[in-house]
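Trying the structure run again after the queue cleared.
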Amino acid sequence: MTTAKFQKTILDWHKDNKRNLPWRNTKNPYRIMVSEIMLQQTQVSRVLPKYKEFLQAFPDIKTLAECNDADLLAIWSGLGYWRRARFLKEACKAIIKDHHGKFPKDIKTLLTLPGIGPYTAGAISCFAFGNTEAFIDTNIRRVYLYFFFKDKTDIHDADILKIAKKAIPNDDPANWHWALFDYGALVLKDKKINKKSRHYAKQSTFKGSFRSYRAKLMRTLLAQPEKSMPKTAALDFLEDTLREDEQDYSASEILKSLVQDNLVKQNSTRIFL
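Done. Tokens:
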């Protein structure tokens, strides 16, 4: 398929099928960053209410950078992958400290912010500042795999990016990437296409996973009036829950992982946010 035909196929479909999502109606880089971090490994339907709630609580870089961790994690609860919330806060602190509160525009500088990888840097730079560099996520990758690599496997992202760079219309790179997102999410629902990629990794089931018990302890801690509880009580809670679910994870390792990720703090007797 030629690049021109590919562009026409995607854009013609998108005219009648584009999704009206709130983060697509802004050029504010902070709001776009929040949406992109939230959308990592989380469905749009779950992000929509949280995005609104989050921006009401933390409307700008300064508010988020200076917020209380317990308040931040309470708002984030329900989205999973809690470290993303901390990365957002740390990114805002870095923007204030290292860039005098001015949001970086270029991908290279965006990549220096905590929690910002190649896709997220590309997306922010494109949607907020009109950057025309190519970037890919799971949905975009699936579109290119489907149209350009039908009879191939073990496809490296570098091979996809060669095509993606030629396909971007310079006049509206944001709409082009939204069209790819929507086509990949709404039309190409056969996730087997993803297996053609060398970078394919099946997402593990949440229920019964190590991270599910991290989340249970976080929710329990957030429910405490002082956002604090005795360390022994936390370990007892985990051990009881693990025993009931017939899981052999270590309660102490679960707590240790939360401390290492700076989601939970501890002293000799208590844990707290």
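The beta strands are 228-230, 265-266, 270-272. Worth checking whether this holds up in the mutant runs.
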